[in-house]
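Entry type: protein chain
Record version: 2
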Amino acid sequence: MRAKLTYAITAAVLVFYFVLVGSRGVMLIQSGTIVTVTFGVAVLILPVIGLWFLWKNTQFVRRANALAAALDAEGGLPVDELKRTPGGRIDRDSADEVFARRKAETEAAPDDWRSWFRLAVAYHDARDTPRARKAMQRAIALHQSAR
């Protein structure tokens, strides 16, 4: 729940920022000189890109959460079996061991969105965020094609 609240607050702050920047871009365009119009258009591009990125990221999070809910309903969510350091961090060897099992599971069933979801969690636990995201995108695509 804390992560959702943090995400919502961050998204709200970003939208406020995009509106603020966009209004400055419009003000520059309204000035009417070639330089200010050029800068105004350039300034308007930033909020458009930011809003697009925020929208795509929100879609990704919603779809990943839907997969987690579906997997939870099936009783297939990965169990947190990772060893932790006294400070609470995940032990690297433990994460590598779980990752090896999840990778083998995914290689055995490459068309199963469930194994890709669990692999994404293992990548995340191993602190490999780019691969975790790609594995989750694969799980989402497989789940959507299976429907």
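Comment: The helical segments are 2-31, 34-74, 92-108, 113-125, 129-146.
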